[in-house]
O-methyltransferase family protein
Amino acid sequence: MDFIDDRIERYAFNYTEDEGPLLTQLKQETHEKLELPVMLTGRLEGRLLKLLVQLLQAKRVLEIGTFSGYSALSMAEGLPDDGELFTCDIDPPAIEMAKKYFHRSEHGKKITLLEGEALKSIEKVEAPLDMVFIDADKANYLNYYEAVLPKVRSGGLIVVDNVLWSGRVLDPQDESDHAIHNFNRSVHADDRVEGVLLTVRDGVFCLRKK
Ligand SMILES: C[S@@+](CC[C@H](N)C(=O)[O-])C[C@H]1O[C@@H](n2cnc3c(N)ncnc32)[C@H](O)[C@@H]1O
């Protein structure tokens, strides 16, 4: 994820709202203890997710791919006290760390963590959803999109991470490259949504359900 100039990335980071001490600590512990800490969204995208939740005045949000809980806690911050965020993952060490931080956060009470395969977890979450954040295995992106779209209310948002895949979408080679490129093409041609592909971090597709 090094296709944006470091100085520009740092500048954007510095002029984005602070994430607060708990999320900074979560980020540090993720880097110390979990594999692939680069998967954590971080301050720039985390604050964007919180902003989107606030702008939508969302009350029900679903996340696919919790990891250590950074993006879940970021979005939960934007929810009202009676808001609900469902998030799911299959990786026990990541789930354990996420639970610890959900417990420590004042926003943790809004979060329900569903353990197991995402497609099974999606079935358990009832409509209507105001926003969905897709950030798990890339090969299943279209499956997740199709599974959540009927549950999203009209005017709601599906936000999809890593859609530029470090620039590899320009010349797809392996299975994940092709999966993401095909996902981008499919949703762009889908009349049920209107989309904007943001060049934030590794690419963030914002798809508004008509
Ligand atoms: C990119 S990370 C999520 C990062 C997280 N949103 C954040 O900002 O910190 C992707 C996560 O998806 C999870 N995952 C991968 N395949 C999955 C599946 N089939 N069902 C549920 N979770 C899955 C992985 O265990 C991993 O924790």
